[in-house]
Amino acid sequence: MNKYWGIPLLIMTLLLSSISFLSTANSTKKEYLFPITLITDTLPPINNDIIAYVDAHLHQKVGYGECWDLAAIPLNNSNAKWDKKYVFGKLLNPRKDSILAGDIIQFEGVVIKTRHGNSLITSYLEHHTAIIYTVFGNYRYRLAEQNTSNLGRKVGFSDIDLSNLVKGNFMIYRPTK
After folding, report:
1. What residues are paired with 90 via a beta bridge?
2. Which CATH number fits domain 34-174: 3.30.70, 3.90.1720, 3.40.50, 1.10.3110?
3. How many beta carbons lie within 10 A of that of residue 146, not counting itself?
4. pTM value?
5. Bridge pairing between strands 119-137 and 140-145
6. Separation CA 77–CA 17 (nearest Å)
7. pLDDT reading at 159 higher than 90
């Protein structure tokens, strides 16, 4: 018998036992404190390739440092089917389709207003491409991106809540072969 047989079970038990829920007095909505996709979703191989590419290039400039380069290069490396412009695979409907890490999001004329305490923060994504790195819940993602005011031309992360969208459009694509 392998002496390590219980380790995967122990890890899964620890993860499941650490699930906590958030709720408010006026709401029955529950949200996980960590992304459920870490346990329940199996990523398509091409999505895994894209996430591995991001991990390998974190804090580095990819290509010319344009936002588009971070999606284009791993798609090309994986021999994905895409139009070499801004259609990065199969168009998804976030209301009906599961969104996964490694999916690609394209923003066009997006304005997001988020309240933090007494402050209202407005974010603009006029024409921007990013990779969904983590799915936190409906319309809430951690993005891997570059060529932003916060990150410069190096790969990094930012969190976004698209339920606060007030203007513009976004499209989410599942990379395909």
Report:
1. 174
2. 3.90.1720
3. 27
4. 0.76
5. antiparallel
6. 39
7. yes
